[in-house]
Amino acid sequence: MVYLGSYGIFVGEEKSMFKLKIFMFLFFMSLILYPMFSFTFDSDEVEVKIFKSFDKVHTGKELKIALAVKIKKGWHINSNSPNDDSLIPTLIEIPPEAKFKLSSVDYPMPHDFKFSFSEMPVSVYEGEIYIGGTVKIPQDIQLGEYKVSVQFYYQACNDSTCLAPDSVENEIIIKVVDAGTMPRAINEKIFSKLKTE
Q1: Does domain 44-155+168-194 have CATH number 3.30.1280.10?
Q2: Cα separation of 146 and 172, whole Å?
């Protein structure tokens, strides 16, 4: 296993597509610069599972999703809004070509820690966290089942080094039904954790 000895560069920007392009640029630059730095592409440090709030949904409505992220002991990932523009943030995305859009994301409260590699406290997540999102169901979409990809972007670090930027892709099935079919709430225990983060 090899490691990245310093953080990559991320330019802050509100538009999610710009963030995604910057992330992918950093990832591929890490491959080009392999002789200069050390990397690992193992994803053992972070485990991600995805859940939805209803088994089915109506057109024009919203569906809540939740990502349960388990970070290996001794490691952390940067929060969605790090204290330093040079740090790579945590980010979740639904591909722009998908029929469904992620209208909002609720990230948990981060923790500020002082590490040996930084002069100021770093805003990070560690342990187990839950990230909530809202998926907008188009009014004109046809009834049926849809597979929707959700991407989780992050960079894992310990108190002295960082791994290369990485991502985890999860998939949810969204079942769109007619107005006469009643959706059933599911995964309520998971979604209750979002309120306590």
Answers
A1: no
A2: 8
* Tokens 């057109």, residue located: 59
The three-state secondary structure class of 161 is: coil
Q: Give the per-residue pLDDT at 38.
A: 31
How long is the chain?
A: 197
Q: How far is CA 100 from CA 12, 31, 110, 195, in A?
A: 25, 32, 28, 24
**Residue 81 in tokens:** 């809004």
Query: Which segments in the chain show pLDDT lower than 50?
Result: 1-15, 27, 30-42
- What is the three-class DSSP state of 157? strand
| Assigned token pair, 39 | 């990397």
The helix/strand/coil state of 112 is: strand
How is the chain split into domains, by residue range? Answer: 44-155+168-194
